[in-house]
Amino acid sequence: MGGRRRAPGLFHTWPPAHRPALAILTFASAYAFRSLGVLIDSTFPILGIILTFLATVAFRLLVTDSDRRMLRNAFGHFVSPDVLHEIESHPDSLKLGGEVKNITVLFVDIRGFTTLSEKLPPENLVPLINTLLDRWSNSIIAQGGTIDKFIGDSIMAFWNAPLSKDNHQYYAALAALGIRHQTAELNADETIGKILKERGQWPLRCGVGMCTGPACVGNMGSQTRFDYSAVGETVNIAA
Asked: Same structural domain for residues 102 and 212?
């Protein structure tokens, strides 16, 4: 039952922002034709409105894509995929210019690294460091931490920034336990263990320092190169 549905007119198919311009153009064309007998060709004005609309959409997409690339470049290698997705979905929640937040900072390094670096040849030392840093990083990221930087044989990381995280002290402690576990697994590796034992450097030992408190976090560096980092007494105590 019921009559046929009418197809929407041209006016209703246009974006709401451009409907006033279309209405004015249509009224002016009709008025000129009825009152003055002049037919105004509305093709070019309508085409201009369409091109303006398409250019606006394209510009917004480019800006959005550029912002996402910036965030991905800044955080892609230092946070978990879930945290990165949250950052991309809610970029307004970030305060990259700088803010004071209560964070948990973690430092981890190889104990006796100076002696280790003197005993091992470069072809053994570099792969060992990279393997350790990779495993430690995975433990940090798995617990929602943000890796600040790699400093030789050490890592600096923190929790509760750039995104807030409840019970961040707890997750930092879990990451520390994961780091100890990863170090123990590496010591149990036969190939690595053999190399270290031959040079009297087995087992590897890691040191972890943690502190929770206020710190200044934000983008820090020069105009051409900067990183999202944290500074303050809390960082110094953890180190």
From this structure: yes
Which pTM was predicted? Answer: 0.67
CATH of the domain at 206: 3.30.70.1230
Question: What is the tally of helices (H) and strands (E) in the chain?
Answer: 9, 5
The answer to whether residues 203 and 123 touch, using CB atoms and an 8 Å cutoff, is no
For residues 221 and 126, membership in a common domain is answered with yes
Domains in the chain: how many in total?
Answer: 2
Structure tokens at 34: 């009825």
Q: Kindly state the tokens that stand for 3.
A: 């009559």
Q: Please, what is the angle between helix 168-188 and helix 122-142, to 10°? A: 150
Point out which residues pair with 111 in neighbouring strands. none
The string of pLDDT tens digits covering residues 35-55 is 776 666 656 666 666 777 777
**Domain limits for position 203:** 81-238
CA–CA distance, 18 with 47 (Å, rounded to integer): 12
CA separation for the pair 75, 187 (Å, rounded): 31
Structure-token pair, residue 238: 């953890």
pLDDT computed for residue 56 by the predictor: 74
Residue 156: how many CB atoms within 10 A of its CB? 22
Q: Are residues 15 and 42 in the same domain?
A: yes
